[in-house]
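Lay summary

Proteins are chains of building blocks that fold into shapes. Our project writes down both the chain and a compact code for its shape. Here are two examples, one after the other.
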Amino acid sequence: MRESDRKKMTPLMIAAYYGIADNVEYILEKVREHSYINFKSDEGYSALHYAILKSQEECVEILLNDPFIKFDSENKENADIFHLVAITGNCSILMKLLAKWGQYLPYSVDKFKKTPAMYAIRNNNNDILFKLLQAGCKQNRNDTSLNTLLHYASAYGNFEAIMVLIDSIKQVKNKRSYYPW
């Protein structure tokens, strides 16, 4: 059951990718190994990553309930599950992830120090953005280029995010001592 294809995708990853929940459940039941559920493809994705990227809610739920699943599974860009759900915009999956691993959200950054909220703004997923902010994602955090959420909202033309961020930011300055607006 540990075999994989040329892209190092396991049968579990493929079942999660295509949303075949019965197969995901059966494979997990038969293969009780920590390394198998968190195994990564050539792209750096685990079965949970693929289920999130394809918005396969039932598969995400099955994978989250497995005792061997790990939070700290990141892809090659160091993007974690919160980043991926910010790209896809699935609020239901986000709420499941927050329920299990919400305490890790404030520490969630990729290799360029981009937060999941920055990904949500870039992909115009404002419902995800607002839920991330409510859950504790920091508004004044800078990426490696010293950009804040407001910089991202301005750059990507996300007016709704700009309004919410300006209304909620009080005397926040970035590292260059400039106001973020």
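And here is the second example, written the same way.
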Amino acid sequence: MNIVKIICSLLLLCAVPFWAKAATPITTEMAEKYFSNCVSGAQKDGTMTAENQKRYCACTAMNMQKSMSQEDLSILSSPDKSIQRQSVNKILIDVNGPCMQYPIHDLINKKCMTDLKNEAICSCLSTRMGQFTKQQSQKMMPQILADNPEIFDPLTPIMESQEFQKTQQQIALYCATHPNQK
């Protein structure tokens, strides 16, 4: 999934000049432009359903406004790669992290339907794993970034983590025995 690379590119397009004043909030106009570009980029990526693409882009746009400044965005164009990386990590943790439930949900649902072809079980599993991801992804990100300091897309490391795998097994068992529970 290249959604995080798309986010960083889109945020760079919204970036203000490097000389902007400290702690300048992200404007509604910037967030709306980002949302528009994000939906377009997510459609090209094809990882998520159209509905979840919009949810994901709305979630990341809201988090961008809430947790970042225009200066954070301008750092993305800094020639200093270590400073640039700090901004990317902030995006991964504070902007993208709380929204990872949407691609996780759709990826798990797609794989489950391919493997099991059981809508009730797959819906239960993907919904519950999406909820788990929403609750845990920000907590998992610092360790994922420490283990993978150059990543732009944390989706695979999240899904391959022991915590995620163990939780997925537990939820899969639950959903197999309670398929109509979401």
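What can we say about the second shape? The radius of gyration is 17 Å.
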